């Protein structure tokens, strides 16, 4: 394709990407460097149904005047990135000096909001991504081996978890694992422990979220691999059979190499998806035991009367950096393959 | 502005005298657009105000639990999306801080003859909102279970612990206490209640510097921890809906729970007569030998937006005053503790009034209290799980609050 044609061909997508992806990223980058203007405080007498009292208030006019002067707020440089809600450099240094043992150091670092969230986010990504790929692959193999008659209904059923809105899916499971719910009560009966709760212990809550993540995403991997299985060259398969390869050997030496580009694709998508895990934490009311980077952003924007835009923007930038780091090995590999095939 | 009111008055007087009906609110034109939270008391006020719609007057409404997220952007626009936002003790803060609502003194003088003084929420000498109901967490208990266990309804948290132990000891219930201890806003609210019961203050006087890392804070946390030992192990996921369900299912005997839920707990849905007839209420318990109930008092009320025409503002004020009338209150006595004069208080109201007369404190709604509340909701969780001690949890809360307050320009 001549370069000119190529540029015209790609221009609409490039424009859309600039407006919907690049500009918002620039915007959060800028936002993360600023904090709100100083609030001018005054003490006034306030009265209501329960009596009067002297209270501190924001002087709205004086604050608005400051706001007009500096609409973006005060420049804070990288200060927000280093504060306690994010990378917490000074807190970490203090803990390092106070705690001689590594275990003690780590457990204390895990009480800092960013690292607590990062730990769960990484664990979730590391556990869910490979298991989704493996489970999706095995479901695809199993479905592919089914007789034609039942294939349609089975595929439909297997896709159901992906069709359910994540928040609804997690809420449904949340009620099922309640100690009065069908799964929760069964587990208590099986373990013969009436106080066993999947919601109360951190370990069990993490496992519950992992299981939910695998349940929800496996159909995606399945459907991609199932499509791939339809393109496995039949003559290679037949010659393998003639050579006496077992079913496992055919999967290992013919099917898997054929599907490897798809594995890379699913891994890429899943890494990105899992790194921004969010809905199950809300659905499972799991914030006591597990928070993620996305949950921290949500928390900054939602749970105070006035949103912490700078803080949320800084976490967003750190999330972006995290995704970029995670994807680098996969992207490097794709690039090498691309160079080789030229 | 005065002339416009005069004109509006004259017009409405004319309208009345000529006998043309404007659905009985005395408004001749204007647009009323309401944004509100969604629970029974507010639904009743909005429904009554909606009756003012008619010739030339339109009333639209958006009742949603997401109102706090919508209100600041919606009112910042000019003209703003809504002419009124229903607010509570804490949610009025961002509207005042950003100067998005207008003072109501002139409207009260012109149209608000029936508004009682206790309804006027005045900030720095100006009426900024009209409150119509009061809410507080107070004691809910199962009279039959307490009797069987041989204990009186507790007046202090120490008695509540003893009662819970007696109930458990007799094998009546494994988890007799329920509480809205869900990590986040709910858990923080419980700490606020308990800390106030111990007589604590959240900030250094006249400044935004946090002041919770003290003996009272530790005592409040320790008491919450002791209570949680008698709660369902999932207590960190329990919000108001869960606690209501626990009461209705007969799984809980004691709770410091929202008064506004009383009507819903004892109604004929979700439970049996045998259980609901035994659910009684009393003032919130005191704690640590103090005399102040360990709870906070809340109000709900309406405001009028700044960025709207004076005509719409007048129409809004009149329609909502009509909505929050004694007539409406008396038709729905069980839905709320109305602050409206001429309302015959029910059993629920008596309890809230008793809490007030015992010296109950209002929720400490300063401009930066929201940041403190959020920090508490995130940082005391580890303590409740037994992962760290109370001093560490309070120090962490102060650190988290300080980081947020610096970013917001308060420190």
UniProtKB/TrEMBL annotation, chain A:
<feature type="domain" description="ABC transmembrane type-1">
    <location>
        <begin position="118"/>
        <end position="330"/>
    </location>
</feature>
<dbReference type="InterPro" id="IPR035906">
    <property type="entry name" value="MetI-like_sf"/>
</dbReference>
<feature type="transmembrane region" description="Helical">
    <location>
        <begin position="117"/>
        <end position="142"/>
    </location>
</feature>
<dbReference type="InterPro" id="IPR000515">
    <property type="entry name" value="MetI-like"/>
</dbReference>
<keyword id="KW-1003">Cell membrane</keyword>
<keyword id="KW-0472">Membrane</keyword>
<feature type="transmembrane region" description="Helical">
    <location>
        <begin position="308"/>
        <end position="332"/>
    </location>
</feature>
<dbReference type="Pfam" id="PF00528">
    <property type="entry name" value="BPD_transp_1"/>
</dbReference>
<keyword id="KW-0812">Transmembrane</keyword>
<feature type="transmembrane region" description="Helical">
    <location>
        <begin position="250"/>
        <end position="272"/>
    </location>
</feature>
<feature type="transmembrane region" description="Helical">
    <location>
        <begin position="204"/>
        <end position="229"/>
    </location>
</feature>
<keyword id="KW-1133">Transmembrane helix</keyword>
<comment type="similarity">
    <text>Belongs to the binding-protein-dependent transport system permease family.</text>
</comment>
<protein>
    <submittedName>
        <fullName>Sugar ABC transporter permease</fullName>
    </submittedName>
</protein>
<feature type="transmembrane region" description="Helical">
    <location>
        <begin position="7"/>
        <end position="30"/>
    </location>
</feature>
<feature type="transmembrane region" description="Helical">
    <location>
        <begin position="154"/>
        <end position="177"/>
    </location>
</feature>
<keyword id="KW-0813">Transport</keyword>
């Amino acid at each position: 394709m001549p370069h000119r044609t190529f540029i015209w061909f790609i221009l609409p997508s490039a424009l859309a990407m600039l407006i919907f992806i690049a500009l918002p990223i620039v915007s959060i980058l800028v936002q993360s460097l600023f904090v709100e203007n100083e609030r001018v405080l005054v003490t006034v007498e306030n009265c209501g149904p329960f009596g009067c009292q002297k209270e501190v208030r924001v002087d709205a006019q004086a604050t608005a005047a400051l706001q007009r002067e500096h609409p973006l707020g005060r420049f804070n440089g990288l200060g927000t990135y280093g504060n306690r809600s994010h990378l917490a450099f000074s807190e970490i240094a203090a803990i390092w000096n106070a705690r001689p043992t590594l275990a003690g150091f780590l457990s204390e670092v895990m009480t800092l909001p960013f690292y607590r969230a990062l730990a769960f986010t990484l664990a979730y990504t590391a556990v869910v991504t490979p298991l989704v790929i493996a489970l999706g692959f095995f479901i695809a193999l199993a479905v592919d081996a089914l007789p034609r008659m039942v294939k349609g209904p089975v595929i439909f059923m297997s896709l159901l978890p992906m069709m359910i809105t994540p928040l609804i899916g997690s809420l449904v499971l949340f009620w099922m694992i309640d100690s009065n719910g069908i799964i929760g009560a069964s587990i208590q009966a099986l373990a013969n422990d009436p106080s066993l709760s999947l919601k109360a212990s951190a370990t069990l809550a993490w496992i519950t979220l992992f299981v939910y993540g695998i349940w929800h995403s496996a159909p995606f991997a399945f459907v991609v691999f199932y499509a791939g299985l339809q393109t496995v060259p039949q003559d290679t398969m037949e010659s393998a059979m003639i050579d006496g390869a077992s079913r496992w050997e055919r999967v290992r030496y013919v099917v898997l190499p054929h599907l490897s580009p798809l594995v890379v694709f699913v891994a890429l998508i899943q890494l990105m998806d899992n790194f921004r895990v969010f809905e199950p934490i809300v659905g499972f009311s799991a914030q006591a035991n597990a928070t993620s980077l996305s949950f921290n952003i949500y928390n900054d924007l939602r749970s105070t009367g006035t949103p912490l835009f700078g803080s949320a923007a800084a976490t967003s930038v750190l999330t972006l950096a995290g995704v970029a780091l995670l994807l680098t090995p996969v992207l490097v590999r794709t690039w090498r393959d691309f160079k080789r095939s030229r | 502005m005065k002339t416009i009111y005069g004109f509006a008055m004259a017009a409405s007087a004319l309208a009345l005298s000529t006998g043309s009906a404007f659905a009985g609110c005395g408004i001749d034109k204007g647009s009323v657009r309401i944004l509100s939270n969604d629970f029974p008391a507010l639904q009743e006020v909005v429904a009554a105000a909606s009756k003012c719609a008619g010739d030339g007057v339109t009333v639209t409404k958006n009742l949603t639990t997401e109102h706090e997220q919508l209100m600041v952007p919606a009112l910042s626009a000019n003209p703003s999306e809504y002419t009124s936002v229903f607010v509570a003790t804490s949610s009025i803060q961002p509207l005042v801080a950003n100067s998005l609502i207008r003072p109501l003194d002139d409207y009260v003088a012109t149209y608000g003859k029936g508004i009682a003084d206790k309804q006027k929420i005045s900030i720095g000498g100006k009426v900024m909102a009209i409150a119509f109901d009061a809410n507080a967490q107070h004691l809910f208990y199962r009279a039959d279970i307490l009797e069987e266990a041989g204990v009186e309804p507790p007046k202090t948290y120490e008695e509540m612990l003893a009662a819970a132990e007696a109930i458990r000891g007799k094998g009546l219930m494994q988890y007799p206490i329920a509480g809205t201890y869900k990590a986040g806003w709910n858990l923080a609210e419980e700490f606020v209640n308990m800390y106030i019961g111990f007589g604590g203050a959240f900030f250094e006087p006249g400044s935004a510097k946090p002041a919770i890392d003290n003996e009272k804070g530790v005592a409040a946390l320790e008491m919450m921890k002791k209570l949680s030992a008698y709660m369902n192990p999932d207590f960190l996921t329990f919000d108001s809906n869960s606690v209501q369900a626990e009461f209705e299912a007969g799984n809980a005997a004691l709770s410091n729970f929202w008064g506004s839920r009383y009507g819903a707990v004892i109604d004929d849905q979700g439970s049996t007569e045998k259980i609901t007839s035994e659910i009684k209420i009393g003032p919130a318990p005191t704690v640590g030998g103090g005399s102040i109930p360990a709870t906070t008092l809340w109000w709900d009320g309406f405001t009028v937006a700044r960025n709207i025409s004076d005509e719409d503002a007048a129409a809004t004020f009149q329609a909502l005053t009509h909505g929050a009338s004694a007539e409406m209150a008396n038709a729905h006595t069980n839905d709320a503790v109305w602050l409206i004069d001429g309302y015959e208080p029910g059993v629920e109201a008596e309890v809230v009034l008793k809490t007030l007369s015992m010296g109950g404190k209002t929720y400490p709604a300063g401009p930066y209290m929201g940041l403190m509340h959020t920090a508490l909701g995130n940082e005391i969780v580890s303590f409740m799980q037994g992962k760290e001690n109370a001093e560490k949890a309070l120090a962490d809360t102060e650190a988290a609050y300080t980081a947020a307050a610096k970013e917001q320009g308060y420190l």
